[in-house]
Design goal:
12 helices; 346 residues; globular; alpha/beta; two-stranded antiparallel ribbon; 6-stranded parallel β-sheet
């Protein structure tokens, strides 16, 4: 064996070892360095997730607020917002801050006209997931008279559908008797699970640790490839096409029932400066034209709200780089004052 081949054969396992060891160190430091006094991130970095009667976050195994929302929008004069974490999270949260859905519900105009405004949101919600939810609402004959759908270019990159979204099919309008039977069947398992968590506090954190490790891998990838919030994100053609197709299906269902649908391009930090946004100028312009064209073809209303929130009302987020300590620009979540501005403009 030549000296160069011998050296190469040594370097490959060494690199793999160093890579895996680095991941292990990051994981141990982040998860166990301060095990008894730590605040594991819930996925929104510096933004605070909001879920309440008006602004419902869809969660795995938690259908309470979802069912309450469905009950509300089954009434006349209902307005439903679909959304992702921009709808349900407030950056640099301060006491007294509210999300824009809550602000809208407090408006005198809506109260006087007895309009019911609700939202359903999930982090990184894709249009494919919105379609599954909407199909189930229609199956239950619970159809909002007005539907707002934000179309985020970022979320057209999402190809997979979360298990708990898939499981919503045939769930939302099932009989109370069936729900009761399912609760009885699950009760013993839940009791055992709770007993284990109560007696072994370590297990309470396992899910959070799993989430944190995935975040660490994400951060490490960003470090290795030099990915930053300002890095240009290319359109993923396959997932983009699937998501746009799902949006078309929602619009077609709405047309059949002669209902009002509003598609909007959501607020974006630095929307007034193409050189600062994390998209290709050509891709982003083409995307906006396509959404506007969809509305022309499918009898819906189109709004471009990208520049609605001043740049000063966005805030920052913790570093998405595994070795970075500095705060970074947050292109997704604005502050409580930003939510107030957004509600007024809407």
């Amino acid at each position: 064996m030549s000296k160069s081949n011998f050296t190469k054969n040594l370097l490959i396992p060494d690199f793999i070892f160093i890579f895996l060891f680095s991941l292990l160190i990051i994981f141990i430091y982040d998860n166990f360095g301060n095990f008894f006094n730590r605040n594991i991130n819930d996925g929104f970095l510096k933004a605070t997730a909001i879920s309440n009667k008006e602004n419902c976050r869809i969660k795995n195994k938690d259908l309470n607020c979802l069912k309450e929302t469905i009950k509300d929008i089954s009434k006349n004069n209902s307005i439903l917002f679909f959304g992702n974490s921009q709808t349900g999270a407030i950056n640099n949260f301060k006491i007294g801050d509210k999300d824009y859905i809550t602000y809208l519900n407090e408006e005198k105009f809506f109260k006087d006209n007895q309009l019911i405004i609700r939202s359903l949101w999930m982090p990184n919600a894709s249009l494919k997931e919105f379609y599954i939810i909407y199909k189930e609402l229609e199956r239950c004959k619970i159809i909002p008279e007005t539907l707002f759908i934000p179309v985020f270019l970022d979320d057209t990159r999402e190809q997979s559908i979360r298990d708990y979204v898939n499981k919503l099919e045939n769930k939302l309008c099932e009989s109370k008797e069936k729900i009761k039977k399912e609760k009885v069947a699950e009760s013993n398992v839940k009791k055992l699970d709770q007993k284990i968590k109560n007696n072994l506090s370590f297990f309470k954190t396992l899910q959070s640790i799993n989430t944190k490790m995935r975040t660490d891998l994400y951060k490490f990838r960003n470090y290795i490839f030099g990915i930053k919030p300002t890095s240009v994100r290319k359109i993923k053609k396959a997932s983009y096409s699937d998501n746009i197709e799902a949006l078309k299906k929602i619009l077609e269902l709405r047309i059949e029932n002669n209902l009002t649908t509003i598609l909007y391009i959501p607020p974006l930090l630095y929307a007034n400066d193409f050189n600062k946004i994390p998209y290709s100028k050509e891709d982003y312009a083409s995307f906006k034209k396509e959404i506007e064209y969809l509305c022309t073809e499918h009898n819906c209303n189109f709004l471009n709200l990208e520049g609605l929130i001043p740049n000063t009302l966005w805030g920052t987020k913790a570093s998405t780089n595994s070795l970075g300590n500095n705060e970074e620009i947050d292109f997704m979540h604005f502050t409580g004052e930003g939510h107030k501005v957004f509600s007024k403009e809407l």
